[in-house]
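Aim 2, interim progress. The first record below pairs a target sequence with its structure tokens.
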Amino acid sequence: MTSEVNVPGAAPAMPLLRRWEAASIGTVWRRPGDWFTPAAEALAEALEARLDTAPAAYRLGEARALVGVGITEAIDDMAVLFRAAGYESAPIRSIRALCEGWTAGDAATRVEPAMNDPESGLGSNDYLVARLGELYGAAERDGTPVSEAHALVLVDVAAADTDPWQRMARNAAIGQSLRDAYGKGRPMARLADGLYAVLVDRGPDMGRGVAELRDHISRRAVQMRVGNLMRQPPRVWIESLPDLHEYAVELVESLHR
């Protein structure tokens, strides 16, 4: 049985657990010092023993949420385990259990700031409105119309008849896709179910970038096995921003609804 206590100096964990930890920290995990949890050991044990991994995956999802790990990072981390064990990907049943456990843990203690969307790892609707306020304030001081220098790139992948775990898996995939495409520091938000926005600078390559983003999202969806949970191909377009901040807020609110 797996102990709930991580005893310093205890015997090393099984080889699969160690391979999983090393691969995850080397690729998808953000903070190496907080990777280990007894729930991870339990999942690795279940997989090595060829047992049903869903119960342990649920427990891992709950543990990750309780310490503030986002759903995207949790799903990516579990995918590393199954690849380390020689599988092409994690089974849907275990992904679903992980998402359900994460939801339970997140409900038990809300560790994410109100301006963040924990499912996608992006900002919330309020976050985007706040960033737009900063942008319009700077534009007013500089005398540069926002509409000439900036725009929103909108991504719509909404599909009918998705249950909560499917929605979370899809949000995680799209959130990761947008972070991969735009990098850190770019204002991005999930506005509604299946609808995401990125605040971008206008430029001659903006149209080509939208086409590349559409292809990138499709590839990431296939990698995370959520291609069947979203609109194909994703709808990606450029939304012009008005020159007045209050109209920009109205635009974001209309998209949110």
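The second target in this work package is listed in the same format:
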Amino acid sequence: MSVIPDDAADVQAGPQVPAADQTLRILRHLARRPAPVAASALARDLGIPRSTTYHLLATLEAHGFVVHLPQERRWGLGTSAFELAGGYARQEPLARLGRPVIAALADRVGESAHLAVMSGRDVLYIVEERALRRPALVTDVGVRLPAHLTATGRAMLAALPKVQVRALYPDAAAFTDRTGRGPARPAELREVLRDVRRTGVATEDGEVTAGFRSVAVAVRDHSGWPAAAVAVTWELHSDPDPSDAVADAARLLEERLGYRQRKGRHGTGETRMP
């Protein structure tokens, strides 16, 4: 007769650390919701005592995994949750699948291209492809830049729920400056993101580095959440129009990640990935 080790029996019996189980369920539930949620709704939907829910939310807030919106009395994911998502994205499969897409984009437009993910109020660059005879950019792999100033950051911020953007940028203190240009307060950022939502394309003009311009398009997952953003950057004396190419690259990456189906010859969905 085989003997099951004590630790294996514990795993089979179910979660032995209720607080850890409840914490992870809260984070997963918030991640699946399109907007912040009231604590009472969390307690009800997850079957967790209300007092326990408040204690867990307070701990998560202290570590930056959730944010409290006092005027709405609701809770949403915080910047530390974005850090976890960005950590996964930096590893696999986003960087691996994104690298050939970004290389092909740079070849197509003849300008440098890159792929970035959100990390708190920053964007983190995970793929960089410099075009032939083009100058080096600040957007090298591993570099962080303020999301509100970059085209990639604006593309992703515009795809987030508005309440989430308000939580990330509650006041003027949340805004940093590089070249003296770009939004410096919440109302100005809202205006920028309104244009991005209208056109589907984010831009920046000398707000990251003087003399350079960028366009970007978000890469969205199954739920519409911005998993990353694709961008092209060029010098102002050059005059390309890479918006369509950037949008094509973003859609192709969505296909390769399994976020959207390819269209067959007659417009029907096709699940086979390239």
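The first helix runs from residue 6 to 13. This observation will shape the mutagenesis plan for the next reporting period.
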